[in-house]
Amino acid sequence: NDGVSLTVTVALAPELAGAVTGNETVFVFARAANGPPMPLAVNRFPSSALPRTVTLTDADAMAPNMTLSTFDTWTVTARISASGNATAVPGDLQGVREGVTVDDGAIDLRINDRVE
What we know:
The chain is mainly β. 0% of the residues lie in helices and 47% in strands. It has strands at 5-12, 25-32, 41-46, 52-57, 73-81, 93-101, 106-111, 113-114. The chain has a five-stranded antiparallel beta sheet with strand order 3-2-5-6-8, with no helix packed on it. A three-stranded mixed beta sheet has the order 4-1-7, with no helix packed on it. The chain is globular and about 40 Å long. The N and C termini lie far apart (38 Å).
């Protein structure tokens, strides 16, 4: 399988719009639902670009042997980071969708939660 791609439309929940300046970094990443915690694919863009649709593929992998197509079920997260750091810190905003499979094709992911 060399053609796994996951299309994710990321939007910010309206009630959190006031918490975002547009200068933050948005990280969209997929992890194996049952596997190592390292992201299998990552995309990043400025929060001023929200809402935005991104496509995660094996080309977005951080390690060549840890790709989307290595697994069949993923947890997809979108996080707005004020620090620009990919690691979650309290106050970051995020949305998570679990149990995503290739059959879902395109998913909507709403950033609607604050990291505690």
